[in-house]
């Protein structure tokens, strides 16, 4: 060591204490696989127009992009891919690689020397700035940067690669002789999932930076849009660990690992990955010359913000708030309005978990418009609409607001928000008790997806809005007694959103509610009782309510009454009007079932007033029905007149009226859940029979 | 594993070289000395330089043997004689680091010694090539992929020999090293344990075992040979696992039986004291060590850390110059010079020297952390974060790096963000008050006073180094208007300071007295209040307040009942109150909000 000269300690890779992984900015380097691709390109250029048919050329061109972007694959696989699009070219490529690998080092050197020729001439084969041209130039540059020993290493690697490929093809040939058909089928399968190439990825060596970036962005977008198509959490983590082993400075991989850990709900690893990512990112931020210190501070703010998001995701609201406060403070100090805006929306999201705060939200929307952040603005509008809907605003105003935000979406092509908007409309229509409109909106969202996938190739398959729309669809079907259809929808949901995924809870709740209703309708109370625990786990209020209903059905009136009173107070406190009305209805029912319909009347009137005020027509008509029934019970002598008049006077042109007149035999309509809270009236059949007897 | 370590026939090997089966106690130091000399020779012949150095050092610390007792060199066997020429040539090549050449001439040799040297040269040649290759790999992403190509071949050959039970102690050691390099940790541990059974005197095998054992549980389940070498091993591994009390006990025993002159043991003790932050003891031992062995470079980085902590500029400067003269291209030297510059506040230069240390040995953990500290001083937070992250990559259990990361984010005013890092540091050193105080401060900034109180109390309970936890706790209580507890804390704080008997000026002492004076005043305990107020007068910043309070007390006393004539002994002195006012609260397990990692 003593012989090392001092000047050696100057390290070009280390400036300002930061080790640059990539001194020369080369993102790519020559590997044997790349040489094979280069040979293919060269061959394609050499064979003139006539030699390869138009169809074959088109197929080849289509093949090229995945070859240039994807990870390295074995030689035999490469041959196979080329053969599928153009057999004769595959042959010539094979021969040239064989010649190069079995020849001498100078063959390879000569090959790279000749590569530059494709750019020369009056009419060059390859345009310099085309995708292929850029690739060629990258490769030539990378090759010329290689040192003496590296060139030799590359050549031996090429020989190795060629020999491995040879061995494989021999084996393959054997296999094909014995079992040709199977081989072909396998080939077809491979063709299908060319975009994912799971097994290739795991068997190949290190990825170059370009390949790694491609891999990461591909997986990230799959995670966002269609989780089922992405690699499984375990194998993705393996890949990422592999990637990080070869290049620990590749910060983005940490972020993907964070996303991956979120998938499996691993708090510890995801926090670890997230913080690691930002520790690393801070460097690259400081590195970039354009915004210098600014970029560094920026990543700090977003680090805190992301931490808040993480805690929120895992339900640690207090921690999330602390992290958010921090983000806000730093953003304020550095006057970053965009970040502040994001913080504000998050603040709303967090505030929503506790109390409603639409002052904050309105402010947020205004600001977002001011700073030109369409995404945040319309997200704010949507939240506002949701809140207003619960507060009983008229439908026309809400729809107007949604239309406005829809304009924004289409203008900025925010497809994600369009989905949310439609899902929201579905929910609003159901809230108001308009099942037809809700159905129509849900169907629109579902069929719009198929439209878009044809157009843009972007599939947003596992977003929350889809889950919501599908759940609504299932519940709507169940409401109308089409339980088979509902279970079909649920089956689809299960496939699309596997049980451990983020939005699985939505369909789980929906599934259990439907099962519960069914059990109640069938009078299988013990079955319903067993479902209550499951519902409580997912939604405690709903669970308590269902518990009360089961108790009521089992004639345990006092317990049921106690539960309902507690629930009523709680719901009034959190202003869950829908639930309040449902509880009131159950209470009223409880009263008349204990033969005191007179006490039930004021309760029912209160429920009616509430549902009118909040324009919940469905609940209103149910209340009217209950009212009619209470009257009936009170004055059995004038059974024929009073309920009927009440129903007719009821301004709500709801289905209850229609049912009364046109479809008196439809049992399922009475024992059905309502939207959201999914109230059910267990004594529905009883009412019906009474009404039927009272019907002229 | 072909043979479990416990059934290895120790007797077979022992028969060949009878001296090599050491006894389990230290009764016969002469015998031990003979064994050490013998093994030093054997390891030297095989090119295992570090083990040879260790044995020789230890042998040197024992009294010299008379001529009659000296061990004749082990007899030369027929095989050895056959390979003698090839071995001599190869050893010469080996010594000048021409490993491939050495291996070439040793090919086909049968004797154990020649075979070991043959395999070992192949291994070293692979390692050397790997190092050269790292600079010259095809692309940056490939750098993790460069590996010693020879390892796999060596493994195959050695495992064949191992199965055939043809490996001696050295062969097993090499096999273990190969396995470890291939990341086959479990197998490697088994083989090293076997090696220690076959050849307990070889320190290298023990040392490798030390590196592979990560916790106390693992240590429990090893069946190690019952020899005097085991004591050295246990002491060493206790130090590694931060079980300092046990380690010191072991080393003391070793010194008692007669190894008091061994510089190895002395340096290990010094390191152990350093680890438990007993700075004075560690310093004095290091000074002693430097007198004994003035040209020693090992462990001098630890010594320089101690000098740094005590800001002993001249001593550090002397040490740095001295080491630089001995060998300036050693990691330790660079580290000492870096510390020196850092103490002189020339942080750029300091960082440069730490970088140099890392160039010499990229896996030298301490330098990454120290470099992080330097960048922190230079306010280059991003570079600091990277340096700390590197340290963590090298060793995930480096609590200083986690702590440093936490500090960096704290400086960036992100108290919530840095909680994570402090928690990690705290997990690694649960009984280190510094992390707890840092955690407490963060919680305080976040206005999570309950958590903060827990942290400070715990920090006090585990033995506060900086003596600040109690004051902070008291102030928290003050904030929450829990005057009772606040007063208790201040009393304890003052007792603490007095019982330490340190003359060092404590800034918070006056605050404590002032608060206590006012507290007693409010409680109408005039005697105590006036004592505290008098104490207040001794400090500049509280003098006026103290005097005012004294006057008030006098007034109120005159108005009220006659004061008691006798003055009780000052309550805060430890002698008077230690009996009834010691902290009675038991240390409760720290239960911080457990939802977050």
From TrEMBL, chain A:
Keywords: Cell cycle, Cell division, Cytoplasm, Cytoskeleton, Mitosis, Nucleus, Phosphoprotein, Repeat, TPR repeat, Ubl conjugation pathway
UniProt pathway: Protein modification; protein ubiquitination
UniProt keyword Nucleus, yes or no: yes
A GO cellular component entry from the record: anaphase-promoting complex
CDD domains membership: Apc5_N
Cell location: Cytoplasm, Cytoskeleton, Spindle; Nucleus
UniProt entry tagged with the keyword Nucleus: yes
Residues annotated as domain Anaphase-promoting complex subunit: 254-353, 458-490
Principal subcellular localization: cytoplasm
InterPro entries tied to this protein: Apc5, Apc5_dom, Apc5_N, TPR-like_helical_dom_sf, TPR_rpt
Alphabetized Gene3D superfamilies for the sequence: Tetratricopeptide repeat domain (1.25.40.10)
Gene Ontology process terms (BP): anaphase-promoting complex-dependent catabolic process; cell division; positive regulation of mitotic metaphase/anaphase transition; protein K11-linked ubiquitination
Chain ranges of the Anaphase-promoting complex subunit 5 N-terminal domain: 30-168
Highest taxon, organism lineage: Eukaryota
PANTHER family (UniProt xref): ANAPHASE-PROMOTING COMPLEX SUBUNIT 5
Function of the molecule: Component of the anaphase promoting complex/cyclosome (APC/C), a cell cycle-regulated E3 ubiquitin ligase that controls progression through mitosis and the G1 phase of the cell cycle. The APC/C complex acts by mediating ubiquitination and subsequent degradation of target proteins: it mainly mediates the formation of 'Lys-11'-linked polyubiquitin chains and, to a lower extent, the formation of 'Lys-48'- and 'Lys-63'-linked polyubiquitin chains. The APC/C complex catalyzes assembly of branched 'Lys-11'-/'Lys-48'-linked branched ubiquitin chains on target proteins.
Family: Belongs to the APC5 family.
Protein name (database record): Anaphase-promoting complex subunit 5
From TrEMBL, chain B:
Cdc23 domain span: 32-270
One Pfam family of this chain: TPR_11
Annotated TPR repeat ranges: 331-364, 365-398
Keywords: Acetylation, Cell cycle, Cell division, Isopeptide bond, Mitosis, Phosphoprotein, Repeat, TPR repeat, Ubl conjugation, Ubl conjugation pathway
Protein's pathway: Protein modification; protein ubiquitination
Record-level GO cellular component terms: anaphase-promoting complex
GO biological process terms held by the UniProt record: anaphase-promoting complex-dependent catabolic process; cell division; positive regulation of mitotic metaphase/anaphase transition; protein ubiquitination
Gene3D superfamilies named in the record: Tetratricopeptide repeat domain
SUPFAM superfamilies in alphabetical order: TPR-like
Family from the record: Belongs to the APC8/CDC23 family.
Function statement: Component of the anaphase promoting complex/cyclosome (APC/C), a cell cycle-regulated E3 ubiquitin ligase that controls progression through mitosis and the G1 phase of the cell cycle. The APC/C complex acts by mediating ubiquitination and subsequent degradation of target proteins: it mainly mediates the formation of 'Lys-11'-linked polyubiquitin chains and, to a lower extent, the formation of 'Lys-48'- and 'Lys-63'-linked polyubiquitin chains. The APC/C complex catalyzes assembly of branched 'Lys-11'-/'Lys-48'-linked branched ubiquitin chains on target proteins.
Quaternary context: The mammalian APC/C is composed at least of 14 distinct subunits ANAPC1, ANAPC2, CDC27/APC3, ANAPC4, ANAPC5, CDC16/APC6, ANAPC7, CDC23/APC8, ANAPC10, ANAPC11, CDC26/APC12, ANAPC13, ANAPC15 and ANAPC16 that assemble into a complex of at least 19 chains with a combined molecular mass of around 1.2 MDa; APC/C interacts with FZR1 and FBXO5. Interacts with FBXO43; the interaction is direct.
Protein name as annotated: Cell division cycle protein 23 homolog
């Amino acid at each position: 060591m003593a012989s090392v000269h001092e000047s050696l300690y100057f390290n070009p890779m280390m400036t300002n204490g930061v080790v640059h992984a990539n001194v020369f900015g080369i993102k790519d380097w020559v590997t044997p696989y790349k040489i094979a691709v280069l040979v293919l390109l060269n061959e394609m250029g050499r064979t003139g127009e006539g030699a390869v048919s138009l169809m074959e050329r088109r197929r080849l061109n289509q093949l090229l992009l995945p070859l240039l972007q994807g990870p390295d694959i074995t030689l035999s696989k490469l041959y196979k891919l080329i053969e599928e699009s153009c057999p004769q070219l595959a042959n010539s490529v094979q021969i040239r690689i064989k010649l190069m690998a079995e020849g001498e080092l100078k063959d390879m050197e000569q090959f790279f020397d000749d590569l530059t020729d494709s750019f020369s001439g009056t009419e060059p084969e390859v345009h310099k700035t085309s995708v292929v041209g850029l690739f060629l130039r990258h490769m030539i540059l990378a090759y010329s940067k290689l040192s003496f020993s590296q060139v030799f290493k590359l050549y031996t690697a090429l020989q190795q690669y060629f020999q491995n490929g040879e061995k494989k093809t021999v084996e393959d040939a054997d296999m094909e002789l014995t079992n040709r058909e199977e081989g072909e089928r396998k080939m077809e399968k491979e063709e299908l999932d060319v975009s994912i190439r799971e097994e290739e990825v795991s068997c190949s060596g290190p990825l170059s930076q370009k390949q790694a970036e491609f891999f990461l962005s591909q997986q990230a977008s799959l995670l966002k849009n269609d989780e089922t198509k992405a690699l499984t959490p375990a194998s993705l983590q393996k890949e990422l660990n592999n990637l990080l082993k070869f290049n620990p400075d590749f910060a983005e991989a940490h972020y993907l690992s964070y996303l991956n850990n979120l998938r499996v709900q691993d708090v510890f690893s995801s926090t670890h990955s997230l913080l690691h990512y930002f520790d690393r990112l801070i460097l690259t931020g400081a590195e970039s010359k354009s915004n210098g210190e600014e970029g560094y501070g920026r990543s700090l703010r977003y680090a805190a913000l992301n931490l808040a998001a993480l805690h929120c995701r895992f339900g640690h609201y207090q921690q999330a708030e602390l992290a958010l406060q921090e983000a806000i403070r730093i953003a304020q100090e550095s006057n970053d309005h965009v970040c502040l805006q994001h913080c504000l929306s998050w603040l709303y999201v967090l505030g929503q978990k506790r109390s409603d705060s639409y002052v904050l939200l309105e402010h947020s929307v205004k600001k977002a418009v001011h700073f030109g952040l369409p995404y945040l603005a319309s997200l704010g509008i949507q939240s506002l609409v949701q809140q207003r809907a619960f507060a009983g605003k008229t439908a026309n105003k809400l729809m107007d607001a949604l239309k406005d935000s829809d304009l924004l979406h289409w203008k900025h092509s925010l497809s994600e928000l369009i989905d949310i908007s439609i899902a929201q409309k579905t929910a609003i229509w159901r809230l108001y008790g308009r099942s037809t409109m809700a159905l129509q909106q849900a169907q629109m969202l579902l069929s719009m997806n198929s439209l878009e996938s044809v157009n843009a190739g972007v599939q947003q398959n596992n977003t929350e809005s889809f889950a919501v729309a599908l759940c609504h669809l299932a519940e709507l079907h169940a409401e109308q007694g089409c339980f088979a259809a509902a279970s079909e929808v649920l089956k689809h949901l299960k496939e699309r959103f596997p049980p451990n995924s983020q939005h699985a809870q939505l369909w789980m709740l929906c599934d259990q509610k439907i099962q519960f209703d069914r059990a109640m309708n069938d009078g299988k109370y013990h079955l319903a009782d067993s479902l209550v625990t499951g519902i409580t786990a997912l939604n405690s209020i709903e669970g308590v309510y269902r518990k009360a209903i089961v108790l009521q059905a089992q004639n345990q009136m006092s317990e049921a009454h106690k539960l309902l009173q507690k629930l009523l107070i709680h719901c009034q406190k959190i202003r869950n009007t829908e639930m309040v009305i449902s509880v009131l209805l159950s209470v009223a029912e409880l009263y008349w079932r204990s033969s005191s319909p007179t006490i039930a009347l004021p309760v029912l009137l209160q429920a009616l007033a509430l549902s009118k005020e909040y324009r919940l027509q469905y609940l209103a008509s149910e209340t009217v029905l209950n009212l009619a029934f209470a009257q009936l019970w009170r004055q059995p002598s004038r059974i024929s007149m009073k309920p009927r008049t009440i129903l007719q006077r009821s301004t709500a042109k709801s289905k209850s009226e229609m049912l009364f007149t046109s479809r008196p035999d439809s049992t399922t309509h009475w024992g059905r859940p309502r939207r959201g809270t999914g109230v059910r009236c267990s004594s529905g059949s009883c009412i019906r029979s009474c009404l039927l007897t009272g019907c002229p | 594993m072909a043979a479990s370590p416990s059934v290895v026939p120790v007797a077979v090997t022992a028969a060949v070289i009878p001296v090599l089966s050491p006894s389990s106690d230290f009764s016969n130091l002469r015998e031990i000395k003979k064994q050490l000399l013998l093994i030093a020779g054997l390891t030297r012949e095989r090119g295992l330089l570090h083990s040879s150095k260790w044995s020789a050092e230890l042998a040197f610390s024992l009294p010299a043997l008379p001529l009659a007792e000296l061990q004749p060199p082990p007899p030369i066997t027929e095989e050895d004689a056959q390979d003698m020429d090839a071995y001599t040539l190869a050893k010469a090549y080996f010594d000048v680091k021409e490993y491939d050449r050495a291996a070439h001439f040793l090919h086909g040799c049968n004797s154990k010694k020649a075979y070991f040297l043959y395999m070992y040269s192949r291994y070293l040649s692979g390692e050397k090539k790997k190092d050269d290759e790292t600079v010259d790999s095809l692309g940056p992403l490939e750098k993790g992929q460069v590996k010693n190509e020879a390892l796999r071949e060596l493994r195959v050959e050695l495992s064949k020999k191992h199965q055939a039970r043809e490996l001696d102690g050295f062969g097993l050691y090499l096999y273990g090293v190969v396995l470890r390099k291939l990341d086959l940790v479990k197998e490697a541990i088994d083989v090293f344990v076997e090696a220690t059974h076959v050849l307990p005197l070889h320190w290298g095998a023990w040392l490798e075992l030390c590196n592979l054992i990560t916790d106390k549980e693992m240590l429990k389940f090893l069946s190690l040979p019952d020899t005097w070498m085991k004591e050295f091993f246990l002491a060493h591994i206790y130090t590694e696992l931060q079980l300092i009390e046990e380690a010191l006990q072991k080393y003391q025993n070793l010194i008692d039986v007669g190894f008091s002159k061994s510089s190895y043991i002395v340096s290990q003790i010094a390191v152990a004291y350093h680890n438990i932050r007993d700075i004075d003891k560690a310093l004095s031992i290091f000074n002693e060590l430097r007198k004994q062995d003035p040209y020693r470079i090992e462990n001098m980085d630890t010594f320089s850390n101690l000098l740094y902590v005590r800001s002993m500029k001249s001593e550090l400067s002397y040490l740095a110059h001295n080491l630089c003269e001995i060998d300036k291209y050693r990691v330790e030297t660079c580290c000492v010079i870096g510390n020196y510059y850092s103490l002189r506040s020339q942080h750029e230069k300091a960082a440069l020297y730490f970088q140099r240390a890392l160039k010499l040995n990229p896996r030298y953990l301490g330098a990454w952390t120290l470099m992080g500290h330097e960048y922190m001083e230079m306010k280059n937070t991003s570079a600091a974060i990277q340096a700390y992250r590197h340290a963590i990559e090298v060793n995930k259990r480096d609590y200083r790096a986690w702590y440093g990361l936490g500090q960096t984010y704290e400086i960036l005013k992100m108290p919530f963000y840095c909680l994570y890092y402090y928690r990690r540091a705290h997990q690694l050193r649960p009984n280190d008050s510094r992390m707890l105080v840092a955690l407490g401060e963060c919680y305080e900034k976040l206005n999570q006073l309950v958590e903060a109180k827990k942290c400070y109390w715990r920090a006090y309970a585990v033995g506060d180094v900086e003596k600040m936890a109690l004051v902070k706790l008291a102030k928290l209580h003050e904030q929450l208007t829990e005057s009772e507890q606040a007063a208790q804390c201040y009393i304890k704080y003052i007792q603490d300071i007095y019982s330490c008997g340190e003359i060092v000026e404590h800034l918070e002492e006056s605050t404590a007295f002032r608060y206590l004076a006012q507290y007693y005043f409010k409680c109408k305990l005039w005697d105590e209040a006036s004592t505290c107020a008098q104490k207040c007068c001794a400090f500049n910043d509280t003098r006026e307040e103290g005097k005012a309070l004294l006057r008030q007390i006098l007034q109120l006393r005159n108005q009220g009942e006659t004061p008691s004539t006798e003055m009780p002994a000052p309550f805060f002195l430890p002698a008077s109150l230690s009996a009834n006012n010691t902290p009675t609260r038991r240390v409760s397990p720290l239960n911080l909000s457990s939802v977050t990692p």
